[in-house]
Amino acid sequence: xxxxxxxxxxxxxxVPKTGSNEFLEDALQPTATHATYINSRLPDISPEHHDYLMxxxxxxxxxxxxxxxxxxxxxxxxxxxxANLVLVAWHACMSTFTAAAIIPAYEVIAxxxxxxxxxxxxxxxxxxxxxxxxxxxWKPLSNRFGRRPIFLLSLICSLICNIGCAKSPDxxxxxxxxxxxxxxxxxxAAIGSVVxxxxxxxxxxxxxMGIWTLMITLGVPLSPFIxxxxxxxxxxxxxxxILVIINGVQLLLxxxxxxxxxxxxxxxxxxxxxxxxxxxxxxxxxxxxLKFYDFVQPLFVGRRLCVLLPAVSYAMIFLFGSVLITVxxxxxxxxxxxxxxxxxxxxxxxxxxxxxxxxxIGGFLSDFWMNSKTKKLGHRPLPEYRLWLSYxxxxxxxxxxxxxxxxxxxxxxxxxxISPVIGIAIAGAGNQIVTTVLITYAIDCYxxxxxxIGVFITFVRQVWGFIGPFWFPDMFTDVGVAASxxxxxxxxxxxxxxxxxxxxxxGPKHRGLxxxxxxxxxxxxxxx
Length: 528
Known about the structure:
Strand content: under 5%
CATH superfamily: MFS general substrate transporter like domains
Membrane topology: Multi-pass membrane protein
Region (Disordered): 1-21
Pfam families: MFS_1
Strand order of the largest sheet: 1-2
Helix content: 55-70%
Number of helices: 20
CATH architecture: Up-down Bundle
Organism: Phaeomoniella chlamydospora
CATH topology: Growth Hormone, Chain: A
Transmembrane segments: 85-108, 120-138, 150-169, 181-201, 208-232, 238-257, 305-325, 345-366, 387-406, 418-441, 453-472, 484-505
Radius of gyration: 23 Å
Number of domains: 1
């Protein structure tokens, strides 16, 4: 099938008969009637399909198995996949980037709008909360109409609402505009996980999932690092004008470089040229009827412990390894060292460096770890094998938070030293390792529900991230900054480490597997 050729066909691979599936009760259960993935072990593909895959990839030993056509994202050239991923990851970054943008300017915003410093910080907390809930609305729409239309709409509306923020005359109008920005900018931060799943094969999933998760993480420290200088030099309202410009640039790049990744391989007709399917299709991609349940369905993936426990663990690590540091640093350092916005922004460099270093373990090493085991065993290991890499991430986060809090309290008044920033970097590395490893693990367990898993994990993370800033100040006041490290350590061990230890050794049982040598691929094959 040549690129750009007209075609209309229904791709429906044959389904092999299986024996008893009693051990698979809680295995992979697609939520739609039209399958998105073709199992890599299905032997009965047409000779034309076989020849196409051999010409395109040099092998048919692919997981998942691509469809027969150039519009299938698995069949795209590498440059096209990566260009689209960069745009989606950048879009995801903008969700946390926008929320954190005003952090170094809290003091001047509070003064200009006539509110307290604490109330000014609620402009960030508000967005954190909405970023958690809004993807519940966007996920079912993106499943039915595709990712591309949702992403384009997201950027157009975010651009308009950021203009509203820049022109807001008072606190109430700015809060309203910030809320709308968070609602519209949120899709890529949650459903970006499914874009990775829809585009890249399993053998490279962690590496590219890591790029998406890294950009979400980097949005938090990168924004105040940049906008501290902006607020100090040209005024805090220019923060919003720069966000408007960024949204506009993203929109222009999406038009030629952001094709549709939602591609259903069985049960639907694909009409029109490849170009039309990827860039011009405005009709429904998935004909499955849209129901109210679809808007809350992501919350129900939490009934699966292989999703719930990684989500809870990740949320706790993210709370202390990212949210606490980012939200409380301006107040802790501002009071102790009397920093201006630009100086405060520089302190976030440690979190940026640490996150980038951590991603080398969480992403690249994670794929190497799994692929090496695959070669040794002759088949893909269970997803739980990846969890070994989460333990150093949790440990690094605990150590980093302890160093940050203890060294901050014992630093001399007005005498800054680099030791708290070193702690920030260590925590950032650990947080990023945990982020990539746990999200990839959950998706490996239930690949067909990667969109719902991304939304659910985002929801849990953002809810905890929203609550934290309300009790962090009281904890510092009642317990002390240094002693708060003990509280953080206890929570990260009890809610971060112990759930992963449990699911590491009992995960196969909770997915319905009775034998440790069964693989997730075998589950998917039997369910198909």
